[in-house]
């Protein structure tokens, strides 16, 4: 089979499409003929060596965690799927899965065939009408966004500042806040992405490069917002942003930070451990009923996969999700 392969740590330009043996499914796994995969910053981190002290990359390495495709073989013990089923989901490299005890392992989705752990909530049936590319863009972003919404316990009428609103996770967070929790969203966004943020449902946008976010937020809501969903900042930058909160407000963050304030409730979002059996089917249903709009901003063919990762590495900011079509 053809696969995008890293042979050693290095920049994405060193990755090549090569021939590898088709991976066989182990116990509890399915083999999938991949139709589409979406890109994540973790793909770059694993291949560059930036996080090698925490997560060792075992070479040859095939990146890709979010996928959609067709089940072609079953490992022993798999009962929830059959050959020919259309599926989508999420998997991580073995070194990551082993460290966190995460039952979501993949041989790498940027390949013609890949294996995924099927027992558990990390693979779901792809319903008719949901395009493979759209499904592949939902998995890791969707699970993190769903966890943020659940952890935030948002109520109708609340005001929420979303920092990182136009990325993959932020795109889903904003839509769910507005359409399901009836919140008012203030979104940080570059000027060229401001229209996109408003399409997602944001009432206001703030250009975080040229405007002080706290000052701009306080101008809109003098008493402060009820909550902040932070998908970008850490350390001192997050501590500064928290000044946009009202007294007793809360922060829901995907980054780890000690804010040191008794007035602020902080919840750290960890998507995979929070994943429920109904999360992926619910996200798929939200796309089909129009609650979630298509957030794909770039599409590549498989023979462009290395270039796509190089483009991702060079992009200072991205909008929505980038996907690779395998066919």
Topology, please?
Layout: E1 2-5, E2 16-19, E3 29-38, H1 41-48, E4 66-74, E5 86-90, H2 94-100, E6 113-117, E7 123-125, H3 132-136, H4 139-152, E8 159-163, H5 168-179, E9 184-188, H6 194-200, E10 204-206, H7 213-220, E11 225-230, H8 235-241, E12 245-253, E13 265-268, H9 271-274, H10 279-288, E14 296-301, H11 305-314, E15 321-325
Parallel strand pairs: 8-9, 8-11, 9-10, 11-12, 12-13, 14-15
Antiparallel strand pairs: 1-2, 3-4, 3-6, 3-15, 4-5, 5-7
Describe the overall structure.
It is a single chain. The strands form 3 sheets. Strands 3, 4, 5, 6, 7, 14 and 15 form a 7-stranded mixed beta sheet that branches. This protein has a 6-stranded parallel beta sheet with strand order 10-9-8-11-12-13, with helices on both faces. The chain has a two-stranded antiparallel ribbon with strand order 1-2. It is built from 11 helices and 15 strands. It folds into 2 domains: about 1-135 and about 295-325, Medium-chain alcohol dehydrogenases, catalytic domain (Quinone Oxidoreductase, Chain A, domain 1), CATH 3.90.180.10; about 140-270, Rossmann fold (3-Layer(aba) Sandwich), CATH 3.40.50.720. The two termini are about 15 Å apart. Helix content is about 30%, strand content about 25%. The longest helix is centred in the middle third of the chain and has 14 residues, at about 140-150. The radius of gyration is 20 Å and the shape is globular. The model has no long low-confidence stretch (mean pLDDT about 95). By secondary structure, the chain is an alpha/beta fold. It has helices at about 40-50, 95-100, 130-135, 140-150, 170-180, 195-200, 215-220, 235-240, 270-275, 280-290, 305-315, and strands spanning about 1-5, 15-20, 30-40, 65-75, 85-90, 115, 125, 160-165, 185-190, 205, 225-230, 245-255, 265-270, 295-300, 320-325.
